[in-house]
Amino acid sequence: MTILVTGATGNLGRLIIAGLLERGADPQSIVAGARNTEKAADLGVRVVHLDYSDPASVATAVEGFDTVVLVSGSEVGQRVAQHRAVIDAAKAAGVSKLVYTSVPKATTSDLVLAPEHKATEELIAAAGVPAVILRNNWYTENYIADLTRSAETGVLAAGAGDGRVASASRRDFADAAAAVALEDGHIGKVYELAGDVAWTYSDLAATFSELTGREVSYVRLGFDDQVAALREAGLDEGTAGFVAALDAGIKDGALADTDGTLSRLIGRPTTPLIEGLRAASA
Questions:
Q1: pLDDT (mean) for 46-51
Q2: Mean per-residue pLDDT, 123-130
Q3: pLDDT tens readout for residues 213-235
Q4: Contact call for residues 137 and 104 (beta carbons, < 8 A)
Q5: Is residue 261 over pLDDT 90?
Q6: Are residues 55 and 143 in the same domain?
Q7: pLDDT of res. 84
Q8: How many CA atoms lie within 13 Å of 260's alpha carbon, on the beta-carbon side?
Q9: Spatial separation of the C-alpha atoms in residues 205 and 79, rounded to whole Å
Q10: How many domains does the chain have?
Q11: Dihedral sign from CA coordinates of 40, 30, 6, 18
């Protein structure tokens, strides 16, 4: 089996490669696809040039692989075209397994991030490439900036209301990607992946208090108030609205569901919130 991991120099891609190696994959069978190959020199596997925005580089990189792990791109607004390049290349190359990292309930969710992932899942289905869809919940590491800010201000201000987030560490999600890439029996599956515990922002504030050694209060913001606060903090109108829309989705329950699928795939409990934050902030 030969495995190509795209976006290999990103936070998730790096961990997927580490997970493959830890699960006993032959380093010679793994290849890291990266836009900047120099940044992948420390991964311990062969590296090929793969730029999502350059379909020719994608087609060249994908040729000859059994399995491709498509780590979703980070450029909002450009991801459908970028992902299409990988899907088209995988189909042309006769890839036997495509693993894609999506978002929770991508085809039905109102989450502002969902449409590009929904479109990508539809492209995969239309292409007929044998695939496994991993719908990843929030990464615990997403909250490091909030942790740092709360250490300075004693406040966690957000528009998430009493919505819950079933986050897990990137390492947990990366281990799941490594597992399905290496194991048989996953083709055609759509896995909703989440941490074992769905927590509220009140829980998050309490965790911040424990980590920072100071009392952190959760301040609930309405949508317009949050946009105004983010604008005052220096964000442009579009970015402020995007962040507020993410919190509105959380408030409405977009990230609340958890059924243990992630822990079953990786063969262990997911990383608790406080441990994930502690490790990420170390």
A1: 97
A2: 98
A3: 999 999 999 999 999 999 998 99
A4: yes
A5: yes
A6: no
A7: 97
A8: 3
A9: 33
A10: 2
A11: negative
One domain for residues 216 and 82:
no
DSSP string, the chain: --EEESSTTSHHHHHHHHHHHHTT--GGGEEEEESSGGGGTTSSSEEEE--TT-HHHHHHHHTT-SEEEEPPPS-TTTHHHHHHHHHHHHHHHT-SEEEEEE-TTTTT---TTHHHHHHHHHHHHHHT--EEEEEE--BGGGGHHHHHHHHHHSEEEES-TT-EE--B-HHHHHHHHHHHHHSSS-TT-EEEE--S--EEHHHHHHHHHHHHSS--EEEE--HHHHHHHHHHTT--HHHHHHHHHHHHHHHTTTT----SHHHHHHTSPPPPHHHHHHHHH-
Q: What is the mean pLDDT of the chain?
A: 96
Stretch 43-71: mean pLDDT: 97
Q: Are residues 155 and 90 in the same domain?
A: no
In sequence order, which residues have a C-beta less than 8 Å from that of residue 41 and are 6 or more positions away?
A: 47
Percent of the chain's residues with pLDDT above 70:
100
Q: Pairing state of beta strands 190-193 and 97-102?
A: unpaired
Average pLDDT over residues 94-111: 96
Q: What is the pLDDT of residue 74?
A: 86
145 with 280, same domain?
Answer: yes
